């Protein structure tokens, strides 16, 4: 499998983002008036002169899914040579965590860029319970930070986002119309050297309802590796279930008989790799009772895990195909594959249940680790693997040390003790 086309063809510059001119002009005007940006870029794009643009402390991009919000921010950063410090919906976004990530991002100098901007992606996904204080601390940051802060949201009109709207310039990102979607699909067909019938693209565009991400995923599903795409190919689209449950996904993978059949699952829109990984690990030994088969499938998952981690830390998306193939085909295809019963009861991953349960204590442990790392100028992982042990020895001899740490991170001595 190749790279997901939504990544491969994600526009890197403003000019490649279709039909969001107004958003581009406003965003550029805001950046150019308030921050450092190259002259050529500002000449080309900063075309709006308005008080509301110049006065705004932050920007909130609002619009439907798959219309280019996240893309706009990354393209902007690329245009003005800024690094993006990002917190998105898959991160925990408590006030503590936000301050930590943003603080770290801003403290560390940028070797290769001329500045940094902060992106809070999908702020309407902030969970009032789990991301405790997250919204308030974003507002605080907007008031105090000296770097550009940009947020995105599908629907920021809820009452609880009012404080955020009040400190930001809200820029509307439009729903794309059929023509825009067709245009992007056509470009991809050309780049992939696929002869795509105009009507086929139109049908894809129609069913995507302005969500370009969905349209591109569909196109890849139907056209990848082919010389041509016809209307007939696309007719199958109605049969596709856009949102499979994790249960169905797992069932398809385990029942797949061929490589392609298993890897096709990766085209499901908004497929959640990390969730899938947890489910796969939990269920491989249940499905494959034969130890050698289970061992083989788990071994492939472990390799996929290594790649996944590497993608996450380095952003090397070109590794994605290896990961998806290992994770999907890697567990679907084992020698002497047993026949699954007609209905197999997959198990909800214990790891997710456990993580949810132990979240509070992990949070406390993180607070202690971060505090020590900061004070001692060492890495958090060094504190975790080495110093916590030393600390437990020290604590036995000198309980006062614990009190000091407890005070610094606002945790009771008893709790600190419990973490050692
Ligand atoms: N206006 C556009 N021009 C060109 N490509 C686009 C445009 N909008 C979206 N895309 C394509 O669709 C993909 C998804 O876009 P993006 O991630 O920016 O959507 P989004 O608006 O942030 O959606 P969500 O609300 O779901 O986060 C991109 O990788 C890009 O390939
Ligand atoms: Mg987005």
**Strand-residue fraction?**
5-15%
> In the CATH scheme, what's the topology name of the largest domain?
Rossmann fold
| CATH architectural name of the largest domain | 3-Layer(aba) Sandwich
Number of helices: 23
Bound molecules: adenosine-5'-triphosphate, magnesium ion
The number of E-state strands comes to 7
Overall form: flat
**Backbone CA Rg:** 24 Å
CATH class of the largest domain: Alpha Beta
Summarize the structure in words.
The protein is α/β, with parallel strands linked by helices. It has 4 domains: 20-172, Rossmann fold (3-Layer(aba) Sandwich); 178-239, Helicase, Ruva Protein, domain 3; 246-350; 358-419, no CATH class. 57% of the residues lie in helices and 7% in strands. It contains 23 helices and 7 strands. A 5-stranded parallel β-sheet has the order 2-3-4-1-5, sandwiched between helices. The protein has a two-stranded parallel sheet with strand order 6-7. Strand 3 (115-120), helix 7 and strand 4 form a beta-alpha-beta unit. The longest helix has 24 residues, at 291-314. The radius of gyration is 24 Å and the shape is flat. The model has no long low-confidence stretch (mean pLDDT 85). The structure holds adenosine-5'-triphosphate and magnesium ion. Residues 69-70, 121, 152 line the site of magnesium ion. It comes from Thermoproteus sp. AZ2. This is Replication factor C large subunit.
């Amino acid at each position: 499998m190749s790279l997901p086309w939504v990544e491969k063809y994600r526009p890197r510059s403003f000019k490649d983002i279709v039909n969001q001119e107004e958003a581009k002009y406003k965003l550029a005007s805001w950046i150019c008036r308030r921050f450092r940006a190259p002259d050529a870029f500002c000449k080309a794009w900063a075309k709006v002169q308005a008080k509301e643009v110049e006065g705004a402390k932050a920007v909130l991009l609002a619009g439907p899914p798959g219309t280019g919000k996240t893309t706009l921010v990354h393209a902007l950063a690329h245009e003005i040579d800024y690094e993006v410090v990002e917190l998105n919906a898959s991160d925990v976004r408590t006030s503590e965590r936000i301050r930590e990530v943003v603080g770290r991002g801003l403290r560390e100098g940028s070797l290769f860029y001329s500045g940094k901007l902060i992106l809070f992606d999908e702020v309407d996904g902030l969970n009032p319970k789990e991301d405790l204080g997250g919204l308030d601390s974003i507002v605080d940051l907007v008031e105090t930070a000296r770097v550009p802060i940009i947020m995105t949201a599908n629907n920021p009109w809820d009452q609880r986002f009012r404080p955020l709207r009040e400190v930001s310039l809200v820029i509307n990102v439009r729903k794309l119309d059929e023509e825009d979607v067709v245009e992007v699909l056509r470009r991809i067909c050309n780049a992939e050297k696929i002869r795509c019938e105009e009507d086929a693209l139109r049908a894809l565009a129609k069913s995507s309802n302005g969500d370009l991400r969905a349209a591109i995923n569909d196109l890849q599903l139907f056209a990848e590796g082919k010389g041509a795409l016809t209307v007939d190919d696309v007719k199958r689209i109605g049969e596709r279930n856009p949102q499979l449950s994790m249960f169905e996904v797992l069932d398809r993978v385990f029942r797949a008989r061929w490589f392609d059949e298993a890897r096709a699952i990766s085209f499901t829109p908004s497929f959640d790799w990390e969730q899938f990984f947890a489910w796969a690990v939990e269920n491989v030994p249940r499905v494959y009772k034969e130890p050698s088969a289970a061992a083989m499938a788990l071994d492939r998952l472990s390799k996929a895990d290594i790649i996944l981690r590497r993608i996450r830390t380095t952003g090397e998306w070109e590794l994605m195909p290896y990961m998806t193939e290992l994770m999907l085909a890697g567990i679907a295809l084992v020698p002497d594959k047993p026949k699954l019963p007609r209905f197999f009861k997959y198990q909800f991953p214990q790891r997710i249940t456990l993580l949810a349960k132990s979240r509070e204590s992990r949070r406390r442990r993180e607070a202690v680790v971060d505090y020590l790392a900061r004070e001692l100028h060492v890495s958090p992982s060094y504190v975790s693997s080495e110093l916590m042990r030393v600390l437990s020895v020290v604590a036995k001899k000198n309980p006062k040390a614990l009190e000091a740490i407890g005070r610094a991170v606002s945790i009771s001595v008893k709790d600190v003790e419990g973490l050692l």
